[in-house]
Specification:
Radius of gyration: 24 Å
Distance between the termini: 48 Å
Structural class: mainly alpha
Helix content: over 70%
Number of domains: 2
Shape: flat
Number of strands: 0
Length: 312
Amino acid sequence: MPENFSLSSPQHLARCRTLSIAFSLLTFCIGATALLGWILDNPYLKRIHPSLVTMKANTSVCLMLVAFSVLLVQDASASRLRRGIAQVCATVVAVVGLLTFSEHLFGWNLGIDRLLFFESAAEAGASFPGRMGVAASLDFFLLGITLSTIDARSQRWFRVSNICVLLVIAITLLVFLYYFYGTETFEPVASYFTIALHTTVALLSISAAILLARPERGIVTTLLGDSPGAIVARRMWPALLIVVLLGWIRNISRESGLFSQGFSTALFVLAILLLFVGLIWWTAASLNRTDRQRRLADDAMRHSESRLTALL
């Protein structure tokens, strides 16, 4: 995406970078807390709740490295040393994610799962002992690529950075929704799509931190400013949460037996359609109002110019 500074005021940019630092610190603290749980052998710090899976020690370290890397590159004009350290952190995270994914893919054991701490099969529960899941390993591989190309001069590589961070968000949300709507432990994919709840929060936080670290470039640019497109885009975000809640309500109604599967699906689709109709109407009304105000301002300006011409 081309750079576009006209849509972003200095206040917007400063606010975005402040939020980026806050999200990075939150991610670092989540990773450090889980690592402390492994050091102290505290199950609550490792898994939050007995029914949830643990955050693996490798995951906690990778989260801390990613957060540290984002903090180092907050300033686009950072020194070569800071950029080098950030690149090393990103490379380590990408390699760990790729190697762990290869363990899932090829079924081998490279010895990195229990390199820091030992986790028994009973303690791991539905997850692999000491090994982050497929989703987390892919996320870290993509995050490493993202941070390695975040300041790429080539527009092609910068687009790769944006695509990678969007894939991280998509993968993390898929696993979160899978658990939110109810994981079926007997499903073959259940053990591969396990992810700790605080890992989900940390991955979404660091993704937001990366996007907000460069608000003058990429995806965030379209959401800044007071242009009609930016305003409409910001108004669309609450609809995403509504869709998630509608899916949850559909899931509950189907499991409770109040409605048949077909009728609950029909209600869900109807609710989605009504939501989109409301959004379309709201957007059209807002754009029409903005266009009407612009035309009134143009008419007033032309009238003033005509009066000025007559006086002269």
